[in-house]
Design brief:
The complex is a heterodimer. Chain A contains twelve helices and twelve strands. By secondary structure, chain A is α/β, with parallel strands linked by helices. In chain A, helix 5 packs across helix 9. Helix content of chain B is 23%, strand content 33%. Chain B contains five helices and eight strands, in the order ααββββααββαββ. A five-stranded mixed beta barrel of chain B has the order 4-5-6-8-7. Chain B has a three-stranded antiparallel β-sheet with strand order 2-1-3, with helices on one face. The radius of gyration of chain B is 21 Å and the shape is globular. The termini of chain B are far apart. Classes of the chains: A alpha/beta, B alpha+beta. At the A-B interface, helix 4 and strand 5 of A face strand 4, helix 4, strand 6 and strand 8 of B.
């Protein structure tokens, strides 16, 4: 018997290109914000702390627990490159669903100089270790295969940067509005990939609190969002071992199928989604992997769809603190579902939302589906 | 008492396939692990076949042909140079920048060596872009470990 699991609160600190804070101080920030904004949770017993980060710092989870005055039964750290945050939430779900814990605090944190920015194991990349190279290959393959023009892909950047500039936590908050010309005139980096089509690593942290669904029924009768579907798939670790299958049966497609099967919902039931857009082309591929559109039609979906996508600005529009990204994505969907997202709230209350995340050239992927109960 | 050299040699643990791969690449020899049982290349280098778990051998690919799957240009080195020259300018557009790009950018190739896909620099790529569709075979011209401790593969186009 699986115990239903709910998200009861989530907060994100302001992302910064570079901050003076240590990784420990950064990690503490969103948790303090979470408990300040949810005073009814202050006496809750935290059974486990899972910290998601690609940092080289040792014993991070226990140090952060100590700094927060927590004495959890379980305290550990999870590192899976860009996918770390969503994987940490899946792990937290498992702890609660299995009955091992009643409540789990998941914290994601990263500094912009993280060791996670280079995937050292991947010998396929040779000296071209930067993710820009595989991002460029995916874009070129897609453009060739489906005859898609640069300006059609640039719409992703325009949408997400313009969403990000309205998000107070984004590194681009308050920036000027951009248009397709700005994207197409931004610096060419690799192949046809331009500066405004690529996300920027930054400092940031995000935290989310999960509990057994009936655990807080007295203190937290509202804001109840349940995790109804989880899918995770890892097909490789090296770029060279994934590139031939990424457009057909890549991990994201399989993870999405698992999550939809578990949740027993269809893509058409979704109200709001956060998808991995470290490069503009990845958002278009995500639409297709999530079965929102047919293969080769993802680029049409950017501006012509019924589902609100990357309202927080996505990774392009917010910045990319690797270990925190998946958690911030989930916080955004949680807030949209509870109608507590302030100016970014898309409608009074959404019913179902999805989080899609990738790591290391899409070699692994995860999908989480949330429902407002 | 005579020292038993043979005994000493036996005590030295065998090198892993990964270490042997690095030893070879340092000597400009490109090898790919191969499973004799599955008749398949194994990548990345590891001591056992990920399919049948049998031990694997290393096959020399230095002079073997690979198929060029895709090429693209990298402007990143030039961007760094550009930033050094124009460090006081904070332009966000690339009009001046594109004009300032040197004509010779790095051409990167994605090459398939019998199922093993690698990214490397193409050293003799002709600037005429029409060639991209015509070129199909490539050979490793040089490989090694650079001063930043990164493995590199330089490819030459076989026309």
């Amino acid at each position: 018997m699986v115990t239903p699991v709910s998200i009861v609160a989530g907060e994100t600190s302001n992302f910064k290109r570079k901050s003076n804070l240590s990784i420990h101080q950064l990690a503490v920030e969103p948790v303090i914000k979470l408990f300040r904004n949810n005073p009814h949770l202050k006496d809750i017993t935290i059974d486990a702390v899972i910290l998601s980060s690609c940092s080289e710092e040792q014993y991070l989870s226990s140090i952060v627990s100590e700094l927060l005055g927590l004495k959890p039964k379980i305290s550990n750290r999870l590192d899976n490159l860009c996918n770390s945050g969503t994987n940490a939430i899946s792990t937290a779900y498992s702890y609660i669903a299995s009955g091992l814990c009643n409540s789990v605090l998941v914290i994601g944190v990263e500094k912009s100089d993280t060791s996670g920015k280079v995937h050292k194991h991947d010998l396929s990349r040779g000296e071209f270790v930067s993710p820009l190279y595989w991002g460029s290959i995916f874009k070129k393959f897609y453009q060739k295969k489906y005859n898609v023009k640069d300006e059609q892909i640039a719409k992703v950047s325009v949408k997400n940067y313009n969403n990000g500039r309205k998000n107070i936590n984004s590194i681009f908050y308050g920036y000027k509005k951009i248009d397709i010309e700005d994207v197409l005139n931004s610096r060419l980096l690799v192949g046809t990939l331009r500066l405004l089509e690529c996300s920027l690593l930054c400092d940031g942290a995000s935290a989310i609190l999960l509990t057994k669904s009936d655990y807080l029924k007295d203190v937290n009768p509202h804001n109840k969002v349940e995790i109804i579907g989880i899918g995770q798939q890892t097909n490789a670790a090296s770029f060279g071992n994934i590139v031939s299958e990424i457009f057909e049966s890549g991990p994201a497609k399989l993870a999405a199928r698992q999550a939809f099967n578990m949740a027993k919902v269809d893509p058409k039931d979704l109200d709001v989604i956060e998808v991995h857009d470290a490069f503009s082309i990845l958002e278009i591929m995500a639409y297709e992997d999530l079965n929102l559109v047919k293969k080769g039609e993802g680029y049409k979906y950017v501006t012509n769809n019924n589902i609100h996508t990357n309202v927080r600005g996505g990774i392009l529009g917010c910045g990319h603190p690797l270990g925190a990204t998946g958690i911030d994505q989930t916080v955004e969907i949680f807030k949209q579902l509870t109608g507590t997202n302030g100016k970014r709230q898309i409608k009074e209350k959404c019913n179902i939302g999805l989080i899609h995340n990738l790591a290391a050239a899409g070699t692994s992927a995860s999908c989480i589906i949330l429902q407002n109960i | 008492m005579k020292f038993d050299y043979l005994k000493l040699i036996k005590k030295i643990p065998n090198k892993s396939i990964y270490e042997l791969f690095l030893d070879k690449i340092k000597k400009d020899i490109f090898v790919i692990p191969y499973c004799n049982h599955c008749k398949k290349n194994i990548w990345p280098p590891t001591d056992h076949c990920y399919n049948c778990l049998n031990k694997i051998i290393l096959k020399n690919y230095t002079h073997k042909k690979g198929i060029l799957i895709e090429t693209f240009e990298s402007y990143i080195d030039n961007r760094i140079k550009h930033n050094i020259i124009n460090k006081n300018k904070k332009s966000k557009t690339n009009i001046d920048y594109n004009n300032s790009l040197e004509s010779k950018n790095t051409v990167v190739g994605l090459v398939d060596f019998n199922g093993v896909l690698l990214l490397g620099k193409i050293i003799n790529f002709k600037e005429n872009s029409d060639n991209i569709s015509k070129i199909s075979y490539i050979q490793i011209n040089k490989c090694g470990i650079d001063s930043n401790h990164k493995i590199f593969y330089n490819f030459s186009v076989l026309t």
